[in-house]
Amino acid sequence: MNNKGQIEQSFIIDKLTDSILNTISGDSFQTEVSRITSVDLKTIIKKNGWNFDWKSEFKDIQKEVYKLTIVNNSNIIQGALSITIEEDHVYMNLLESSPFNIGKNKLYEGVSGNLVAFACKVSFQKGLDGFVAFTSKTNLIKHYEESLGAFHFKNQRMIIETEASKKLVKRYFKS
After folding, report:
1. Which end of the chain, N or C, is surrounded by fewer C-beta atoms within 10 Å?
2. pTM for this model (two decimals)
3. What is the DSSP track for 12-73?
């Protein structure tokens, strides 16, 4: 956490694809993003290897909490995202890949990119011109600049502006 109580994001953008890729077979799977339910909260817990308290995110009425799943397989959560709709941007509070999608032995690539693109899409839908902000761990600022086209605004704040946001949305959401 930084001094404002915001969690420093440390997700890795491993691949920007229009789906998620199985690292073993190379197969591509279409994804969908939907609201996390109270039933989902029973599986995305620290005991199962998750790092964040998704139940408290879910209970916070100012936050919208989503899950990324493979189409026709909504029971297995590939990643989770918590956002807040601010006056002029979408703020990504938390983004986390499922424990089995982290590290060198991860099962799927592309989870984080999918979720960031979704936040960008929400920003456009809410009339916020694609602006998305988040707080980065210091050592990942350059990674987010290069992989997402985000820019380092101040301290550890990162912003994805309209053009970079459009590129992400176009890549992930063809329609």
Report:
1. C
2. 0.90
3. ------SSEEETTT--EE-EEEEE--TTGGGTSSGGGT--S-HHHHHH-TTEEEEEEEETTB
